[in-house]
Amino acid sequence: MSNSIPQNELSKQIEDLVLGFVKENLEVILKEEMKNFFEVENPELSSSKNGYYERILDTRYGRIPDLSVPRDREGFFQTELFDPYQRREKWLGEAIIEMYYKGFSTREIGSFIERILGNSYSASTISNITDVVVEEIEQWQQRPLRKRYSVLYLDGTYLKLRRKDVDSEVVYIVVGVTDEGYKEIVGFHAGGKESSLGWKEVLVDLRNRGVEEVLLAVFDGLTGLETALKEVFPKTDVQRCITHKMRNTNHSVRKKDREEVAEDLKKVYRVNTKTEAMEKFKDFKNKWNSTYPKVIKSWEEDLSVLLTFLDYPKVIQPQIYTTNTIERTIKEIKKRTHSMNSLPSEKALEKIVYLVSKEFNERWEKRVIVEFTAAKEELKEMFKERFGK
């Protein structure tokens, strides 16, 4: 007959040993704190000591149900380990926010806490804990912005949001590159369906928060967005995303022609000057106009805003003819919400987008974009010529 201990029982014994060790050491620290407070720092108060009381403390190693905490009659002594009414270490709130950010549902987070602490936190309790970021979101969305941005990338994405029922609603996102060459998520706004009016509200908000001078705005072909941009930032150039335009063209030509059409169009925008681009487009038109006249017409109508990037320093052109920069950010937001069938409220949606934005900005503020640094003087001259400063 085997004398081996079942794995789950062994794990429980190990957990109990670890928790016992933690409890023992916490109590030693508490005693030393008490001793130092009354015997070294405040000996005149030593008669106030009044034994111990037991309290619950949730730690990362599990729940301690009977931690002995020293006390005094007048309440002079207070440990540095935790606040008087604190029932959990700060790590727990931080862990909950991090898990929420990583895409765990409130139900999943509650189950995780139950496994490590032996008691369940309800979905509403988890939501309340993550609400600590709500005030941060409001402050972040109202923070003053820089006066100058070399580039603003504008794009929207849809996430499933539950109000009375579940539907997809847009999140407007703006990523900027400062005149110093640093990238940042400038702002986001959630709710409704994407529209030029919605974008105008976003742009007006940026202006109200301090943005005055923008050289270039890069976005896809949403109807009315260019007009909205020009109303708010009349001196800003427009670059329509070539990648989006190529995708749309791809859907408009037959499968057998797609590769050849794409290669011919690359010749149009992979050039050094607008003059060369117009010559290459003339060749493209002569070749394909009889087969795909609507494609040709569409490109002719948009060509001026598709080739804007050629007016900018060559070193940054690959960075500005497409919205790839902001699409990578959106992809990360989608990734974080993938495990959620839908978000329970607009507030929950904003929490996720804010936490992603915060992480990106903390990472980006430490790393300048090399291409924009190389073009810094040329861009500075463009600001001077356009805005007179």
UniProtKB/TrEMBL annotation:
NAD found in the keyword field: no
Protein name stated in the entry: Mutator family transposase
InterPro entries: Transposase_mutator
Protein family membership: Belongs to the transposase mutator family.
Function: Required for the transposition of the insertion element.
Protein's organism: Alkalibacillus silvisoli
Keywords recorded for this protein, A-Z: DNA recombination, DNA-binding, Transposable element, Transposition
NCBIfam families cross-referenced by the UniProt entry: transpos_IS256 (NF033543)
Superkingdom in the source lineage: Bacteria
